[in-house]
Structure formats: C-alpha cells, structure tokens
Amino acid sequence: MVRVLLVEDDVDIAGPLLRALKREDYEVVHVINGKDAVRAAQNCEVVILDLGLPGLDGLDVCRQLRSTGSTVPIIVLSARAEELDLIIGLDAGADDYVTKPFRTSELLARIRAAIRRSAVATVLSFDDLTVDTATHVAHYGDELLILTPKEYELLVMLVKHAPHVVTREQILKDVWQTDWFGASKTIDMHISTLRKKLEVAGSHKDLIATVRGVGFRCAKE
Which of 15, 105, 168, 221 ranks highest by number of CB atoms within 10 Å? Predict the structure, then answer.
C-alpha cells in the first residue's frame, strides 16, 4: 500500500483530503507542522505539502528534504498563484504545484502521476550523459550533476526522446502538468541553468539545442 504524507494544518482542508485519500486506498500519515513533516517524509512515497505552515514553512521543508538527498515526490498546495511563487516552489524542490482552491479529483490525478513517474526505473543515456531514474542521479562523463527536481525531469525528458525534438507544449504538460503557455519563460530559465551545469561538467555548449519556434533536443557535437 502506498503511504502518502499529508502536511496541512487547516482542518477544513485536511479533513476532506484525508477521507478522499483513504477512499483511494492510500495509507495516510497526517502532520500539521514542518518539523514533523521532515521526519515523516522519510517513510512515505508521496508528500502533499502546504506552504503556509507554522514554524518551519513548506519551502524550508522542501529544501531540507532535498538537501538530505530525498527524492520523494512532493506536491505543494498553496494559495499563492503567481508565476514567481510557482518558480520559487519548484526550485525549492517541489515536483508539482497545486493552487488553492483545487479540485480533489485533480489532486488525486497528480498523486497517481507522481507515483507512476517514481516507479519507472531505468538508465537513460545520450553522448556522455547518463541518467539513472531509479536513484535520480545524473552524470556527464564522471561528473555528478547536482540538479533541482525540475532540471532533473527536464533532462530525463530530453534524453528519453533524444535526438528528437521535445516541444514546449510537451514539456509544459509532462514536467509542469499545465497547458498554460505563459509558463514558457519558466522552461527557458530551467534550460539555461541546466546548460550551465552541463557545461561546467564538460559538455559542449549545444548538448541541449534550441529548435527555434518548436522546443529543444539533445544534440551531439
């Protein structure tokens, strides 16, 4: 049975969510503060995390979990709907971002998607780049790449489809679970930082090539 950690201190939100998760046959652990969340996440397969927590807030919970090497999928719940808030949440280590108010059916679908992504384990490679999806570890040659969760997901998608083009629409749908094209600037920002990290590790500068007006692809030198 999949164990889901719900981190939510608002009883009006937590109550219905707990009932919905249990109806889906998840084993649910419920905590109401950040410190307990960091401890409980170690034994869970998915984390549903409110940002507005007492004491240690949700962003700090994300950062602490990722700093310890935890790869548990984290789905953030937040009333903050601005694009900058989305970017900050994802860069802190969240895998997905759901704004309040939300439909329970949508959140359940995102949980199922997160579980599917984490269950598929294989080693992908292109050129001197390798990605182990079982351990969430990526290397260029012998150099370990230190990636944020979204940078990692982008890299997996590009390597999996290499050398073919991945469109912006595909990236938005599969990595950010949205079809809002206004988030396209977020893709550019993450592609830019991913390229820099690859170049530091020794890759040629066009390993991730831009296909103007379409998207991106992995390309050999």
Answer: 168
Instruction: Decide if pLDDT at 121 tops 60.
Output: no
Tokens 């990595």, residue located: 175
Is residue 69 over pLDDT 80? Answer: no
179-190 pLDDT, tens digit each: 665 667 888 999
DSSP-derived pairing of the beta strands 129-132 and 123-126: antiparallel
Of the listed ranges 134-143, 186-195, 204-213, the one predicted with least confidence? 134-143
Q: How far is CA 91 from CA 45, 86, 131, 152, 171, in A?
A: 20, 9, 20, 11, 16
Q: What gap in Å lies between CA 38 and CA 100, rounded to an integer?
A: 23
If phi > 0 it is left, if psi is from -120 to 50 it is alpha, else beta; for residue 56 that is beta
- pTM for the full model? 0.58
CA dihedral 86, 88, 92, 95 (to 10 degrees): 20
Work out the end-to-end distance of the chain between its first and last CA atoms, rounded to an integer number of angstroms: 46
User: Using an 8 Å Cβ cutoff, are 88 and 96 in contact?
Assistant: no
Taking CA atoms, 27 is separated from 23, 56, 62, 202, in Å, by: 10, 24, 21, 44
